[in-house]
């Protein structure tokens, strides 16, 4: 017969009791979550593609959750400020941050310090989908093609004002990468976000801007911006007459910005799965899907791990581009 002392029994049963308690707490959280609105931080200003996509998806996710998903714009430092702030938020599922090609793939390679560690500070929640970038110019210029753009820039070195929507974003890396390949000297004009850059383009303060399709497409349709080329692997459904960069001879020049949502590390798995389910339901909602597809977004969705895979592969790809072109945030 085996005898146990009170101390040994305590040591034996305490871990099991703690595990049971944690499991019960997780189950209760899953049943009651969310009990209040969820905040989604967009680390860029209003009006840009990140903001447009987040607001549409939040609309649909709010319906699925039974609680509103509220957008908070926290721009600055190429998205680093809003992302770093979210890393320090309570890991309870009530604060998320939008993850983009800039904040989750490019910034770690061009900034000495971002203020966050993607692997340690966050857990992936959802990958919304991807778009393409569009090279645009002010319609008053004589530039009507990429060939015209190259000729103008070479004839006027350092004098063609080109907007950068946010340092580290795809609308920063895309034109800088192109200028490096084509041997162009451009006059870069940085802004805090795509919304401000679009305003400058429409007002003629800059002549060129490379932007994500969701935010620049309405301006193109209104005749306020002239498209020269797209960066997708194929032409845009909404701009079938505009060639891809690869068609124009720039082989391998494919840039597809993407959007996802992350939560602070330590967020209960039950909350992550509940949020992931709501976001998947949102993009399957015909009303929401139609709005997203009209912006040019290619919907992806799926499990949280799909975003984790995207972050890993894109980080590796852009690290090579940044190193090859010696790009740094200044």
Characterization of the model:
Helix 7 (170-182) links the parallel strand 6 (161-164) and strand 7. Helix content is 47%, strand content 17%. Helix 1 (6-32) packs parallel to helix 10 (269-284), helix 2 packs across helix 10 (269-284) and helix 2 runs antiparallel to helix 11 (286-294). It has twelve helices and eleven strands. It is α/β, with parallel strands linked by helices and 330 residues long. A six-stranded mixed beta sheet has the order 2-1-3-10-4-11, sandwiched between helices. Strands 7-6-8-5-9 form a five-stranded mixed beta sheet. The chain has helices at residues 6-32, 49-65, 80-87, 101-110, 118-121, 146-155, 170-182, 194-202, 213-221, 269-284, 286-294, 304-325, and strands at 38-42, 69-73, 95-100, 122-130, 133-137, 161-164, 187-190, 208-212, 226-230, 258-264, 298-299. The mean pLDDT is 91.
Summarize the structure.
With 330 residues, the chain is of the alpha/beta class.
Keywords:
five-stranded mixed beta sheet, single chain, 330 residues, 17% strand, six-stranded mixed beta sheet, alpha/beta, 12 helices
């Amino acid at each position: 017969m085996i005898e146990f002392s009170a101390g040994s029994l305590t040591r034996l049963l305490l871990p099991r009791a703690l595990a049971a308690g944690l499991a019960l707490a997780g189950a209760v959280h899953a049943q009651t979550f969310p009990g209040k609105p969820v905040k989604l931080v967009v680390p860029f200003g209003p009006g840009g593609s990140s903001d447009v996509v987040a607001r549409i998806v939040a609309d649909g996710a709010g319906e699925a959750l039974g609680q509103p998903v509220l957008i908070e714009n926290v721009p600055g430092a190429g998205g680093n400020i809003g992302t770093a702030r979210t890393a320090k938020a309570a890991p309870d599922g009530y604060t998320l941050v939008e993850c983009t090609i800039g904040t989750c793939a490019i910034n770690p390679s061009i900034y000495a310090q971002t203020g966050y560690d993607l692997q340690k500070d966050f857990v992936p929640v959802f990958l919304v989908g991807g778009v393409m970038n569009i090279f645009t110019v002010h319609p008053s210029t004589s530039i009507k093609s990429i060939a015209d753009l190259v000729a103008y820039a070479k004839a006027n070195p350092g004098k063609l004002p080109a907007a950068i929507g946010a340092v580290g974003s795809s609308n920063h890396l895309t034109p800088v990468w192109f200028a490096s390949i084509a041997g162009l000297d451009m006059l870069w004009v940085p802004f805090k976000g795509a919304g401000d850059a679009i305003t400058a383009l429409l007002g003629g303060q800059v002549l060129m801007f490379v932007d994500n399709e969701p935010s620049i497409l309405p301006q193109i349709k209104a005749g306020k911006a002239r498209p020269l080329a797209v960066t997708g692997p194929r032409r845009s459904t909404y701009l079938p007459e505009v060639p891809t960069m690869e068609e124009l001879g720039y082989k391998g020049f494919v840039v597809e910005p993407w959007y996802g949502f992350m939560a602070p590390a330590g967020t209960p798995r039950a909350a992550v799965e509940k949020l992931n389910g709501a976001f998947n339901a949102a993009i399957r909602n015909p009303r929401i899907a139609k709005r997203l597809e009209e912006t040019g977004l290619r919907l992806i969705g799926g499990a949280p791990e799909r975003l984790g895979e995207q972050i890993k592969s894109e980080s590796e790809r852009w690290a090579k581009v940044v190193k090859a072109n010696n790009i740094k945030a200044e």
